[in-house]
Amino acid sequence: MNRKKILAIVVFTFLFPSYCLSDEGKAKDPWRAFDLTSVTVSGLTLRYEKSLESRIDSIRAKLSAFLKEESKSFAQVDLLRTKSDLIIERVNKIVGLSPNQKQKAEQRRIFSYFLDKSIRLATPGRKMTVYLVTTESTKDYLRKGGTLPGFSYDKAKDKAHYKFAIRYKSGDKKDRKDAYIVIPVMADRAEKQFSLSLTSLKRSRDGLTGLSLHELIEVTMLSFRLKPPDPYFRWFSDGFANAITIRVLGEFVGKQTSVRFANLYDISKYAGLEKEINLLYWMGLEYCIKTPLESEKRFDYARYCYATHEAVRIINKHGIECVSKILDKACKNERRNDSRNLIPAVKEVTGEDIEKRFLRYQTFKTKAEGIKRYDESFNAAIKRKDYAKALVALLRIHELQGIGNPRRYNSAAHLLFHMGHEAAGDRAILDFADFCKDHGLKDVHGLMHAYFIDYARKCGNLRKAAPSSEIVLKSEPEYVPALAVRMLKLADSGDTAEAVKIARRILKLDSNPKSPWRQLAEKVQKAQPGN
After folding, report:
1. Quick check: 154 and 142 in contact, CB under 8 A?
2. Residue 208's pLDDT is what?
3. pLDDT tier at 155 (50, 70, 90 boundaries)?
4. Dihedral sign (CA 241, 243, 249, 251)
5. Cα–Cα–Cα angle for 86, 92, 93, rounded to 5 degrees
């Protein structure tokens, strides 16, 4: 992952939740309209619909068992926290870093930050309520115009969506004593879905416990040692961060915890993707075109699993000390580091040819062959109007060719829009625009915002390009599409005189009668009296 990873919140439709914290502020109890009763389970209050009464004994037992296991898990989190200095010292030895005081402080901050992200239902001094409600009653309530925290309702599709969060009844950030969660279940599958929700929470918790170590290790390797300026470091950074995490968890917490974390990256679940993942071309997050496709999430996780598999294999074969030796070799050149230095470094230390080894994770022998194959797949999918397959092929081309072609982000945005993911299409262009700005690519930054204006027009929502138009006009004051957006903004605000001035300016600059920008200008001009 990239060095400033952000934990994602996954929205789901009454199924498996992802976990986060949320401030709800002071509000009336939205569940008064529901027929609820309550019981106490290991200090927690379980409020549930009376229609679930016949199933509640089983559900109480599942919650009680979960809370007992949670207590054991958080004893391990506390153990990691008390041993943080020793753990950081061990990590530094493994990766071959002699940190300065600033680096040590950053390591402590990162480790502590992610340990604190581990979510606990039963927290001393905090009152926790678990609301167990049916999807049927919540959807009916939303359908009638009601609102519920974390829920949204799509009237056109008659679908309710829920975003899981631990929520607080007080708007005061200092007051975190009264919290609650909501778990929606289908009435006829209540026990199973409740159990699945708890399992998902458990996996999230286990993953976050290991993630605190993973992030510490990854930042230490990338930010303090390798510092690669190119995208292709993830096969090493994520793979070895996980492999070292497995080792350190075993040393400081115990084998059971280590095995549990390792099992999160079991390759057996992804055998069907092994030849497709192009592990050597796995790009850092800031270089990727992000999509909401579930297939891509699974694809990405397969890469985590196989990268971890390879790193564990190398460490088991050559010893944990090989990590610092590999990094020493990769960083020995005084010239600017490149993650491609890792390939000869691994070979020099271990004798293993990573490029040859990783051919098992791709269907082509050379990059040029791979690009040609994905390009053919893209063109064939476009002809069939199979936008999902076209997008997948485009993403693979992007990974093989790198970030040098701005049009690719524009193409991805249009494909996402055609698939019904307009917001993701927006981000495909705007995220890369931000990347260019951060990296001093001024001309490309402006080009991406110009692309966004045309994309917004095709979305039928030109007004969302107002910020982009102002950015483009700073360097190109007569760029017609940007002028058209400014014209609309002025007309919307009631400044008709200025809007007409810009319309006249567009008509002088754009003589093509079929131009959508000229047609828009004519419409604005005709709408004003006296024109």
Report:
1. no
2. 66
3. confident
4. negative
5. 90
Per-residue pLDDT for 2 more than 50? no
Alpha-carbon torsion, ordered 47, 50, 54, 55, to 10 deg: -40
Distance CA 363, CA 274 (A): 10
Identity (one letter) of the amino acid at 63? Answer: L
CA nearest to 63, candidates 165, 183, 170 = 183
Task: Report whether 472 contacts 479 (CB < 8 A).
Answer: yes
Token pair 């960083």 is found at 331
Helices (H) and strands (E) in the chain, counts: 20, 8
Measure the CA–CA gap between 165 and 169, rounded to whole angstroms.
Answer: 12
In this prediction, residues 170-198 reach a mean pLDDT of: 82
From 53, 291, 59, select the one nearest 196 (Cα to Cα).
Answer: 59
CA separation for the pair 222, 2 (Å, rounded): 9
- Give 94 or 150, the one with higher predicted confidence: 94
pTM greater than the 0.85 cutoff: no
CB 278 within 8 A of CB 362: yes
CA distances from 117 to 206, 295, 301 (A): 11, 27, 21
Report the candidate in 424, 369, 372, 402 with the shortest Cα–Cα distance to residue 282: 402
- Stretch 437-443: mean pLDDT, rounded? 94
Residue with tokens 């030796």: 325
Mean model confidence pLDDT for the chain: 88
401 to 274, 292, 364, 378: CA distances (angstroms): 21, 22, 14, 15
What is the distance between the alpha carbons of residues 83 and 253, in angstroms, rounded to a whole number?
A: 10
pLDDT at 27 over 80: no
Which of helix, strand or coil describes residue 89? helix
Q: Residue 197's closest CA among 12, 15, 10? A: 15
Contact 87, 200 (CB under 8 A): no
Q: Which of these ranges, 152-161, 234-243, 371-380, has the smallest mean pLDDT?
A: 152-161
Query: Which helix (DSSP H) or strand (DSSP E) does residue 165 occupy?
Result: none
Question: Residue by residue, what is the 3-state secondary structure of 27-66?
Answer: CCCHHHHCCEEEEEECCEEEEEEHHHHHHHHHHHHHHHHH
pLDDT in tens, 190-202: 999 999 888 887 7
Query: In this structure, is the dihedral angle defined by the CA atoms of residues 383, 388, 393 and 395, taken in order, positive or negative?
Result: positive
502-505-509-511 Cα dihedral, nearest 10 degrees: 100
